[in-house]
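I hope you will forgive my troubling you with a question about protein structure. The full record is reproduced below for your convenience:

——
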Amino acid sequence: MRTLNTAAIIAFAYAGLMAQTPIGSYAQLFSEAKPELDSMMTAMQYTEVVEKVKAILPDTLPAFEKDAQDPQRGFESYLGLNAIMSFNIYLGRALVMSGDSEGALSSFKKAEEIASQNAVDIESIVTPMIENWTTVIEENKKNMEKASKDLEEAATIKKDIEAKPGKNKKEKEKNEETLANLGKNVEIIEKNMAVWEENLKKGPDSIEKLTGMLSSAKEDTKRFESMISSLANDLQVENETINDESKGKEAKYKGNKSKYVTDAANSDANYYIDKDKTVPKSQPDKIMFLNRLLFLDPKNTVAKHKLDVVLGKAEEPAKTTRPAPKSPAKK
């Protein structure tokens, strides 16, 4: 049975030294872009992140390339699609921070879709390889046991012949021929054993790496559920708050986004984690909230001023307190 050089394939693929096919190049692109994307996200350059990622992402998702004779193409496809998934995650993060929650939800759903299909496709590549290596290990163990017995038997025959080389020329020539053939057979057995020993060393490691890759791919399919659910719920609540007319005349906003944005921006509760307003939200959370309000109403001066305050570009006006009323003078 032909063994697969899985360790070399995985090492080659993970090192990013992939053939420059359209799908394979995305892993290298992501490796190169990630440090800059991280820096831009830290610097709150969300618009720039969106532009950069959109310029990289393909218009059409590349197909997963499967080739039973060349498993490396499958690994390259998996890593390339995994990189495209990661680009979509960065796009979603940047969009949600810049206020485009709908666009972020779409990006996260796209990433989830890629992850789900990628897990199915890589499983179709990895499972036969794991099965093949399992069979190879079992067969090579049996081969090693038989080869060890054959070597012991050859050593016994050699020892017997050397002890009794022959009484005459004919017997001696026959024994010499037997020893020569025996030596050739031993050489073949030892070469085979070297191959089997190498397979028995590489096999378990390759199975572990393949199993790990498959587990990682399946884990990727689960990472978006909570994120998508939370974002979708936030959008639903927001939409119902702005557009709810079920209360009739008592409906507060009746689709008036500007009024909703102004009220939300002015509400102190929106800048704290707890109801008692003792734990302020982090600066990124405040920025995300205010960017969302400005996405809904770009010209809202209240939300814009609040954002400038959070960014340190403006100061919050001091709250004025009314003086206590004077007590009436005693007569």
The CA atoms of residues 283 and 310 lie 7 Å apart. The radius of gyration is 35 Å. The longest helix spans residues 101-163.
